[in-house]
Amino acid sequence: MDRRNLLPIGQFSQASGLSVTALRHYDACGVLVPAFVDPASGYRYFQRDQVRTAQSIRALRQLDIPVEEVRRLLDGGEQELVAALRSHLRAAERRLEVQRSVVHSLLSRLTEGAEMTHRVTVRQGVAERTLVRGATVDNSGLDAFLRGAYREMYEVAGRGPLTFAGPAFVRFHGVCDDENETLVEACLPFWVQGAQPTDLPDGMTVRELPETTLACTEVEGAAAGFPQILGAYDAVAAWITEHGFAFAGPVRMIYRRWTGIADDPDNRMEIAWPIDEPTEEPA
């Protein structure tokens, strides 16, 4: 065989920036197969034009993209690879924003105290009859779910027409972030003595929510957007714990003023957590 256009694995390793061990691994995985393997010695040789591919593999692995995904992307062609890289960049920027917010929130808590950043108050929440649409989502699907759910509920309300008895709110039954999904309920309260909804679409219900005591804090503008708003949840949870109350239901995110645009300076949200007096634990 004419080996003038081939590079032995050692030289190919130097040109590509991949170790010999990594090249053997990628060969075994089918990600980067050598052009020729000497049947006598088992020594691997690569074509010179495989250097670019190897460098791309090295870069993709530096981005923590799994080997199987690297193989799929390389097989999918340049357009798919470009789209995947742009998606990866957006996700990385989002993770960085979350990390930046977490660091700033923790620094504020350490240097100023949570009570200086989020003032927590207690108020009595009234009993409410609400339209409810629920779904199990993580943070990446939260916005789309809420927009769709409220669009449907306002259509139902308009057919009544229902009289709104308070601002729309969301109930979170657990942690909803980029790593966890939970049941999320979009809620729209309406007047009990007025018109009542009919012909509810599948998945939409009417729920009676009882009167409850709420520990609350408000946030505005950028602080009302994700991930900054997580600091408000933490502050209320810490206050409830420190003051000896019990958590009495899903936390609520109430739209006190909402323009429909995230991070709008006119947005104002309230984080409200149902609380109760602690009960005696059995001995």
Automatic annotation (TrEMBL):
Entry annotated with the keyword Cytoplasm: no
Span of domain HTH merR-type: 6-76
Gene3D superfamilies tied to this protein: 1.10.1660.10, Regulatory factor, effector binding domain
MF-aspect GO terms: DNA binding; DNA-binding transcription factor activity
Protein origin, superkingdom: Bacteria
Alphabetical keyword list: DNA-binding
Signal peptide stretch: none
Protein name from the UniProt record: MerR family transcriptional regulator
Lineage summary: Bacteria, Bacillati, Actinomycetota, Actinomycetes, Kitasatosporales
